[in-house]
Amino acid sequence: MAKTWFITGTSSGFGRHLSELLLERGDRVAATLRNPSRLDALAEKYGDRLWVRELDVTDTAAMRRVVDEAFADLGRIDVIISNAGYGLLGAAEELRDDQIDRQLATNLVAPIQLARAVTPHLRAQGGGRFLQVSSMGGHLTFPGFSMYHTSKWGVEGFFDSFAKEVAPFGILTTLIEPGVIGTDFFEPGGSSDIAPAMEIYAGSPAAWFREGVTDPKAMPGDPIRTAQAMIDVGDAENPPNRQLLGSDAYVAIRDAMAERMRVFESGLDLARTADRDGAS
């Protein structure tokens, strides 16, 4: 049976691939993006199976209005995919205040507000799915990427808690955690913002992304296969709370967690000194 999906950030990258794959298989897509004309070709091809609205996800009032309109026009929406987001590259000192504000507004506050906006609708229809695009960067960090990691670690914490709150209503939530995927994510003019470089950081760990290879063809993850895997999660009868996508994500997160546990265990004796006498 055909499903209806609501997706943010559909102009390019995962959002565009998701929309194309879902429409091709016969589903309906409610696609939101800042420039709706970028979906004109899909609208012409698929007609009323593609519902398009302009949306800047950092505008919370507009977010609520578009969500309400989508449910009113389309009736049931089976799967929400919170996909809109981008990277912000640069050492913390190199970033401007407005870059920090926009990163958190887009990658952290917007997903929270989308979840809040759709919850009454999903509850009223008896449940649904919510997929939040996170990252392996929600479990580990690289220098020069601090604000992106801040947004993704925050998203991980929010949805880990949110999932438990809404599960009794039949709302199933999955954090999608891709590794390094061959999109335009790291390219200037692509989906990342790059802070002006300060000479003092040249050659330092903070310049790793800026000075590294960012050719999408050199990245291990395939964007279309990643989008299809997201769809598979949305279709799953019992989807996981978290889903890694890409072998690199598995290896990187496994190693980061192992190192974190090593550090915790090395400090266990000191940790115990904070206990009350007789505490178990």
TrEMBL record:
Kindly state which keywords UniProt assigns to this record, in alphabetical order.
Oxidoreductase
Task: Provide the family line.
Answer: Belongs to the short-chain dehydrogenases/reductases (SDR) family.
For whether the record's keyword set contains Membrane, the answer is no
Q: Which InterPro entries match?
A: NAD(P)-bd_dom_sf, SDR_fam, SDR_oxidoreductase
| Name of protein | SDR family oxidoreductase
Question: What molecular function does GO assign, one term?
Answer: oxidoreductase activity
SUPFAM superfamilies from the UniProt entry: NAD(P)-binding Rossmann-fold domains
Which Pfam families does its entry note? adh_short (PF00106)
- Kindly give the CDD domains that the UniProt entry links to this protein: 17beta-HSD-like_SDR_c (cd05374)
Q: Which organism is it from?
A: Cryobacterium suzukii
Give the domain of life. Bacteria
